[in-house]
Amino acid sequence: MQNKNTYSGEYKSKLVIEVLEGGQTVNEIAAREGINVNMLKNWKREFLKNAANAFNGSKSEKDAKKEAARAKEREEKLMKTIGHLTVQVNWRKKNLINTSDPAGRRNMVSKNEELTVSEQCRLLEVNRPTLYYNPVKMADEVLEEEEYIKSKIDYEHTLHCVFGHRKLRSELKRKYGINIGRKKFLRYMKEMNIMPIYPKPNLSKPKKDAVKMPYLLKNLNICRPNQVWAIDITYIKMGRSHMYLTAIIDWNTRFIVGFELSETLDAAPVLKAVKDAVSRYGKPEIINSDQGSQFTSEDYVEFLKKQGIRQSIDGKARWVDNVIIELWFRTLKYELIYIEEFDNPRQLRKRISEFIEDYNTARPHESLDYHYPAELYSAA
Fold this sequence. Notes:
The structure is a single chain. 53% of the residues lie in helices and 9% in strands. The protein is of the alpha/beta class and 380 residues long. β2 and β3 form a beta hairpin.
């Protein structure tokens, strides 16, 4: 017999189950256990009332579990918020120590794994739209940048004259950090009259209505001055601008017979250079050039015809035809243009004139058996 205060839940359940099994009546079980029959009936009633909770749990228990889960979630969220605020405070302290300048604070904003761009802008008191503003470059800045890029294109082309635009673009990006689009790069090369020197199946095509000229140097024995002149145009850097140099060289003696500087890439300076050279040194039998539009212009062609000068134009795959003048351009740039600064066209013209004078009269050539070009040209 157990005391009233010692009836355990297990004991109560055992007796109620016996009652439910029906082996003995409630009175018999109560008498056997020495307990009040009404107490046993109450246990049975309570047992049956709470039987469903054995599977579903009580409503209060469910609510308690849900509330506990919500409390835990709130706690985790709060801890996360506290941690994020700590990161923000530390990040702000660290960055504001370095600078108070608005432009400097804008430069501090970056793609941070812990803080979004919006949060960084709020903490640094930076207006977010200003991060994406690219100031428009002034016309002078654009021109200066273009001249800088063109000067590097010219230098690399002179250094690697066989490089096409892809390799030149790669060199500019690797050496100078210059990264411009392919179309823009090709436009610059066209404006500078730059083409790689290498065998290719089709040179620059003249216009359909352009005058067709033959190539006259094939198998020709060039053995005397004024037999063949070669003419070409090259880009020359000058301070924050540039000019174009037209030069004419006597094929046999390497003697520079004429040059002209201009700001434009048209036929007028070419024609002037030829007229001055003919006036000073007489007429050549043949003058050779590439297929550029300057050398197929009406004025240029008509002048050569009137003078009785036969015009020769490089043919397809004749990549070596004008190498002689290209090599002189390279010498001029390495020994003068790239090592001196020129502030104005007058200064540039004077120094080129002095360089040509020295080249013609004081520079021995291995290909000329170490004679000066002027010696061989004048001797004839």
